[in-house]
Specification:
This protein is mostly helical and about 190 residues long. The chain is built from eight helices and two strands; from the N terminus they run αααααααβαβ. It is globular.
Length: about 190
């Protein structure tokens, strides 16, 4: 977290979304109370899977081996996403990263974190890239390196789009650069 965020936190402390206590966006007690880990599922069809593996059927259009999912977009999780993305509460990245880190407890040392880049216009509007901020916080917690390895090809906005449209919009949207940083790594 930046020094300015800490100074603002002293003057106008964050209030926990769960219990209302001052000090953080979501206190450690509420992380434990409100966050329920979800059963591992295929990110494509949502069928139960082993260790968040993408099933063979979905791999034809979703060419990834695993996609870890930290929680459902509802309740406190939904509030945190909205707080970070639409209310510019940078401090929300920290409890989100704590929750995400619980999924990565057994990943190998050859893993690298890679934020999916936000459209430049959204970064200018918010004043920060929320995905990069989460990746940096997650890196600090897990010790895994965080590298910018993707570049956007356009500035498509997904807000309000259906799941089907979102999937179509991101097809071919990103390209890999800095390939030397991912050789022999899991991303």
């Amino acid at each position: 977290m930046q020094i300015i965020d800490k100074a603002i936190g002293l003057l106008a402390p964050q209030v926990c979304l769960g219990c209302g206590m001052e000090g953080s966006v979501l206190c450690h007690e509420c992380i434990e109370l409100y966050h329920e880990p979800i059963q591992p599922r295929c990110a494509g069809c949502h069928a139960l899977s082993e260790d968040f593996r993408v099933c063979v059927k979905c791999r034809s259009w979703l060419p990834l081996h695993k996609i870890y999912i930290a929680g459902n977009y509802e309740g406190i999780s939904e509030q945190m996403v909205k707080s970070l993305k639409f209310e510019q509460k940078r401090q929300t990245a920290e409890p989100m990263s704590v929750i995400m880190a619980k999924l990565l407890y057994d990943v190998s040392h050859d893993t690298v974190l890679c934020p999916v880049p936000t459209a430049p216009k959204r970064v200018r509007e918010r004043g920060f890239d929320h995905a990069k901020l989460i990746s940096e916080c997650l890196s600090a917690i897990t010790g895994l390196p965080s590298n910018n390895l993707l570049r956007r090809r356009s500035n498509v906005r997904q807000l309000g789009s259906s799941r089907k449209d979102r999937i179509a919009q991101v097809r071919g949207e990103f390209e890999i650069f800095n390939t030397e940083k991912i050789e022999g790594k899991k991303v």
